[in-house]
Design goal:
Blueprint: H1 53-66, H2 87-93, H3 96-99, H4 111-128, E1 132-134, H5 140-157, E2 165-169, H6 175-182, E3 186-190, H7 200-206, E4 211-217, H8 229-238, E5 242-247, H9 259-262, E6 266-269, E7 289-291, E8 303-307, E9 310-314, H10 331-367, E10 383-386, H11 388-391, H12 397-405, E11 413-414, E12 423-426, H13 434-453, H14 455-459, H15 472-477
Parallel strand pairs: 2-3, 2-4, 4-5, 5-6
Antiparallel strand pairs: 1-7, 6-7, 8-9, 10-12, 11-12
């Protein structure tokens, strides 16, 4: 039997019990057949649950407690930077002057909001080492596509129409090849070497006159910083291509290194990751794109500019790739990011990187005794383990992830990147305490010991969750979307 707070709302139903009180109908009743075809008119009352207001409030409150998020538990999802969102940012985003304005208001009535956007652009220019920034893109992959469309426009404006290929390392984020394809390019994979970095010889082999750009995630999805980035930039630029920086992992280099100084021409940022906007659940996000000077003409329009002491939306951009999002970007996320940058300051942003890297290396070293470590070297903000040792005992990485649910943790990213067998990608972020890290480490160590001594416990996990182990493939292909009485 389910406990009261776990019962489905249909199971709680009692005939005649209601949770609402509505006034009597004060408009004339209408014959629905005059308004709708007969087949659309219900002939019987719907089978809805009959519950009290108290019961329904307890039901939905109990459901909300089942959700896992950064405010309720540790969320070490590699490559996604699921870190704490300061509530000060939320409060500022709710200021009337930000939350109650409309994007179609006259510019003169929203100068404060426009000043914030302009100022945020300037901060991001300084942080990335770029020359100009657009705030329009709605998220990271949208920013990737926007950057690639500007690169495409640049090449076409220069009569270089044969540059149809984008080089993507096998350690890149999965959105990179997808964005390149959507932007109309062919993708070419460049391999990693034994150190987990881009193989320079393979890069030289694939670069050519048809190269439009190299997309690089740095640090890559193995959590490793590309040490040969200046040489890579020289190789691509000498071939006439552009360098694109996937800045999703920027919290690993904030105030330590800038993409613009490394030779990159384009960079996108995930404000909902690095700069603490709410992340997950389908949005909202924000993926500003910064460019070097030769790509400025192709930026989406409008951009926020300052003229004679006033802030304006600049539409006079004849070579622009056009608008990529209605209005001017996800303004509320931009407010949160701006608040975060201003409250942290340069020293605070520098500390972000230092703690992110410290936490990842601490966790990696403590777990390397119990799991295989594919690349035994200093990592940045995240690292990868391999469950090959456990797989030989009949316990797969998926089983380890399921078992972590019993400890109250959201599992890390698994089976990605694809170039590591039985991959477990962990990102502790900079906002977690040592005590939290130690507790997670202890759980991972216990699971490794269970794999050796009692593998069935791991193979059959989770044991303590409301729903037991699911068939993810079946759930994706044949989801059950309606209540089914058992």
């Amino acid at each position: 039997m389910h406990s009261q707070d776990q019962q489905l709302i249909f199971e709680m139903s009692q005939p005649g019990r209601i949770g609402y009180s509505l006034p009597e109908l004060d408009v004339p009743e209408t014959d629905l057949s005059e308004l709708l075809p007969d087949e659309y008119i219900r002939k019987e009352e719907p089978e809805l649950p009959e519950v009290s207001e108290l019961d329904i409030m307890r039901h939905y409150t109990a459901l909300s407690k089942r959700n896992h998020g950064v405010d309720s538990g540790f969320y070490p999802l590699g490559s996604c930077t699921m870190k704490y969102n300061p509530k000060m940012n939320e409060n500022v985003a709710r200021f009337n002057g930000f939350a109650h304005i409309h994007p179609l208001q006259d510019e003169s009535t929203v100068q404060g909001a426009m000043e914030l956007m302009y100022d945020l652009q300037q901060h991001l220019i300084e942080i990335t080492g770029m020359d100009e920034v657009t705030l329009q893109p709605a998220a990271g992959a949208h920013g990737e596509w926007t950057g690639l469309m500007m690169i495409r426009a640049f090449h076409e404006a220069n009569g270089d129409n044969n540059r149809v290929k984008v080089i993507v390392p096998d350690s890149a984020h999965g959105t990179n090849p997808a964005s390149a394809t959507v932007a109309g390019f062919e993708t070419v994979t460049v391999k990693s070497n034994e150190s987990g970095l881009v193989d320079l010889e393979d890069l030289r082999r694939v670069v050519g006159e048809d190269t439009a750009a190299l997309m690089l995630t740095n640090p890559n999805t193995l959590g490793l910083f590309e040490e040969n980035i200046l040489e890579m930039a020289e190789i691509v630029h000498n071939a006439g291509g552009k360098l694109y920086y996937d800045g999703a992992n920027l919290n690993a280099v904030l105030s330590k290194a800038r993409p613009g100084d490394m030779g990159f021409d384009v960079v996108h940022l995930n404000l909902h990751k690095t700069f603490t906007g709410p992340h997950g659940g389908g949005g909202p996000g924000s993926g500003p794109v910064g460019v070097k000077s030769d790509l400025i003409p192709y930026l989406p329009k409008p951009i926020v500019a300052k003229r004679d002491g006033e802030f304006v939306f600049d539409y006079d951009r004849p070579q622009s790739i056009g608008r990529v999002k209605p209005f001017y970007g996800n303004f509320g996320i931009n407010v949160r990011a701006y608040t975060y940058i201003r409250t942290m300051g340069p020293d605070g942003l520098k500390a972000v990187t230092e703690y992110a890297v410290l936490n990842a290396n601490y966790m990696m070293r403590r777990l390397s005794e119990f799991y295989d470590l594919p690349f035994d070297r200093h990592c940045k903000h995240e690292f990868v383990l391999s469950g090959k040792r456990q797989k030989k005992l009949g316990v797969r990485t998926l089983d380890i992830a399921k078992r972590l649910l019993d400890f109250g943790y959201h599992p890390p990213t698994i089976y990605f990147p694809l170039n590591v067998e039985e991959c477990i990608m962990i990102e502790p972020t900079e906002t977690e305490s040592k005590e939290t890290l130690d507790d997670f480490i202890d759980a991972m160590i216990q699971i490794a010991k269970e794999a050796e001594e009692n593998p069935e416990v791991v193979q059959e996990a989770p044991h303590t969750t409301v729903v037991s182990r699911l068939d993810e493939t079946l759930a994706a292909r044949k989801p059950v979307l309606r209540y089914q009485k058992i």
